[in-house]
Amino acid sequence: MKRIVIAGSAVVVGLVILLPAGFALLRPVTVLPRIELAPGYDFVDQNGRRFTSEDARGTITLYSFAYTDCPMPCDGVFDVMWSVQAALDTVDTGGLPVRLVTIGIDHRRDFPGALTQLAARAGAKPDVWTFASGDSVRLLRTVRNGFGVFYEGMPDSTYRFSPAYILVDGVGIVRGDYRIGVPRAEDLVDGIARIAREARAEGVAHVMYEAAHFFACYSE
Amino acid sequence: MTRRTVLVLLGAAVIVTIGSAAWLIGRRPVRTFASQTTVLSPPMQAAEFALESADGPVTLRDLRGRHVVLFFGYSFCPDVCPLTMQRLDRALDLLEEDADRVQVVMITVDPERDTPARMRQYVSQFDPSFLGLSGSEEAVHKVATDYGIFHAKVEREDGGPYTMDHTATVLVLTDTGELVLLWPHGMEAETMASDLRTLLGG
């Protein structure tokens, strides 16, 4: 009897130790990290309508940056965003809406008419992919100070900037920041799917996701 | 393996388990908050700010040692702000003596009209312990952007005083200045109090 008690205790103790350690090491669930709060903003979209960070609340949003007549690197940005847009039909988000947003960084030219042309050039579906911009102060606060994306106007009316793709969840938290090289559209779509799965998780599954955050089980 | 060895190993395992449990509990991984609350686990370092109260400059660092419930609004706000402030007042009442460990802060999104003195007057209507902050337009815009708060002036068609559209999310920071909870607009006072109790007691 005594041996059974000892053996049983050892098993329980072992489980208590091994389960958290196992979770941390084996990483049965991985998540995208919660990086920071996305900035609040107030812009105008390609249809001349007001577009704010509140419009993005409740949707998974992928942000990118471009400007009218942008030669490079905007074509690459549009390629990636278009591929994500095309792949969204294959992603099961459980009904959670997904939105793509490209912010025009040229306050002198990125007015609704120009943004409409830019959206057409990019092959944007109006109900999925929004183009928006604002005055210089709003852009500076949101893009450079908020999203931390550097851009600089040049004397020849072009802009120097590094492409960035920023994934924000429905609560307004930055969950993915892709700005080294050109990300693969599959990785961005995978990020969207991960956020959607996590947002839908309830009960034990929700606890597993929170444990994944706690143990920093981040996806690559 | 002798019986003594088994006992020693078992004792060591128990010590490790208790130590691990204490560490985990110390980091508070599992706490129950309201379903509509967004819990940031681990918490995020909140952005530092420097604003003005009626009594002088206030930074986030000055508020260390108390949990901070942060709301962005303005004193001319017709509905959302008074409702939120009333509920926060009620939530603190429900916390009873633990309310001393919580500081409610309202930062204006309308620095053009809301001076620090006006903010104090406004928040004091709800609870004299509430802190109202204002500052330069640039300082207010910066802190709002840092905390994900959208805000914009809206001119009225009837020529009346302008209003402000703004995010009505309430943010909760730990006593060490880390962002830990996000409450959507419309949370009931009882739910906020329950979350705060969990946070304080967890």
Order of helices and strands of chain B: HEEEEHEHEHEEEEH
Any low-confidence stretches of chain B, pLDDT <50, length ≥5? none
Question: How can the largest sheet of chain A be summarized?
Answer: 8 strands, mixed
Report how far apart the termini of chain A are. Answer: 49 Å
Strand neighbour order, sheet with most strands of chain A: 1-10-9-4-5-6-2-3
Largest interface: A-B, 33 and 35 residues
User: Can you tell me the overall shape of chain A?
Assistant: elongated
End-to-end separation of chain B: 42 Å
Proportion of residues in β-strands of chain B: 25-35%
Figure out the total of helices of chain A: 7
- Quaternary status: heterodimer
- Rg of chain A, alpha carbons: 22 Å
- Reading the helices and strands of chain A in chain order gives HEEEHEHEHEHEEEEHH
Q: What about the largest sheet of chain B?
A: 6 strands, mixed
Q: Whole-number average pLDDT of chain A?
A: 89
Percent of residues in helices of chain B: 25-40%
The amount of beta strand of chain A, in percent, is 15-25%
Global shape of chain B: elongated
Radius of gyration of chain B: 21 Å
Instruction: Give the strand order of the largest sheet of chain B, numbering strands 1, 2, ... along the chain.
Output: 1-10-9-4-5-6
Q: Uncertain spans of chain A, ≥5 residues at pLDDT below 50?
A: none
Explain how this protein is built.
The complex is a heterodimer of chains A (220) and B (202). Chain A is an alpha+beta fold and 220 residues long. Chain A is 42% helix and 20% strand. Chain A has seven helices and ten strands. In chain A, helix 3 (74-87) packs across helix 6. By secondary structure, chain B is of the alpha+beta class. Helix content of chain B is 36%, strand content 25%. Chain B contains five helices and ten strands, in the order H-E-E-E-E-H-E-H-E-H-E-E-E-E-H. In chain B, strands 1-10-9-4-5-6 form a six-stranded mixed beta sheet. In chain B, a hairpin with an 8-residue loop joins strand 7 (151-154) and strand 8. In chain B, helix 2 crosses helix 5. The model of chain B has no long low-confidence stretch (mean pLDDT 89). The interface between A and B is medium-sized, with 33 and 35 residues.
